[in-house]
Amino acid sequence: MMGRHIHSSGPPEPDYFLRTVRPEMTDTTSDPPLDAGAIKAKLETLRSEHRDLDEVIDRLIEKPPFDQLQLQRLKKRKLGLKDQIIKLESQLIPDIIA
Length: 98
Known about the structure:
The chain has 98 residues and is mainly alpha-helical.
């Protein structure tokens, strides 16, 4: 699958997240609506990548000196993932008519 990674020894190196373009990081405003199962699957993928990025950022910071620009890009990507996670989670919450 494009954009997914399998790792057994922890998250990928920081450059992996800066080199790869994953479909989940692209604008999804024109995508057709997903059913609940597809949303949950996508959420798990995004959450996994978010956790991996968190570990990569922690590992990068532990070994000074580190590249501030790389750190900034990783954090920005992590925030983008968080935004997508929130957006998908809101699609799972039923609309309540007030």
